[in-house]
Specification:
This protein has about 150 residues and is α+β, with helices and mostly antiparallel strands. Helix content is about 35%, strand content about 25%. The protein contains 2 helices and 5 strands, in the order ββββααβ. Strands 3-2-1-4-5 form a 5-stranded antiparallel β-sheet, with no helix packed on it. Helix 1 packs antiparallel against helix 2. The radius of gyration is 22 Å and the shape is elongated.
């Protein structure tokens, strides 16, 4: 995945960049109910990247995250909680006899939410470990323009 970004801070071999993401609505000229709220038009995301091109504050750069890292990260965020949720339901339903008078369905539902919370803790722990590896860090692939004098928020 490639994005254009503006360098807002440089510290040693790290650079902090801001990426402006635009929604599909920002390119539409039609008046509709979705356009009433300005909040969905664009988001600014701050990302720390490796400064391997000796960039300076104000430079416009291209940053890239490898596709394999993006896919693996998406699986961790979306698939792991879903699997924990479903497995939690079946574990709770099959162990409902331990909880006394509550039904299999209620036991399964309660257990699925407990497993969902456990998946959150698991994902958070894995995120801390993999965020330190170079495989999951974006890097600057090129400089689009030097010292862009457009104001940076």
């Amino acid at each position: 995945m490639r994005e254009k970004a503006c360098v807002v801070d440089v510290k040693g071999d790290k650079a902090k960049v801001v990426v402006t993401r635009h929604s599909a609505c920002s390119k539409c000229n039609e008046d509709c109910i979705l356009g009433l709220d300005e909040s969905h038009e664009q988001d600014k995301i701050y990302v720390e990247v490796k400064n391997n091109k000796n960039v300076e504050i104000g430079d416009m750069v291209n940053i890239e995250l490898k596709d394999s890292s993006l896919v693996l990260g998406s699986l961790m965020i979306y698939l792991v909680p879903l699997l924990f949720f479903v497995i939690g339901y079946f574990v709770g339903a099959n162990l409902s006899f331990l909880f006394g008078n509550i039904s299999e369905e209620l036991s399964g539902i309660i257990s699925s939410f407990i497993f969902l919370y456990v998946s959150y803790l698991f994902t958070k722990k894995v995120d801390k470990k993999i965020s330190k590896t170079k495989k999951f860090q974006s890097e600057i692939t090129g400089i689009v323009s030097k010292n862009n004098k457009v104001g940076v928020d």
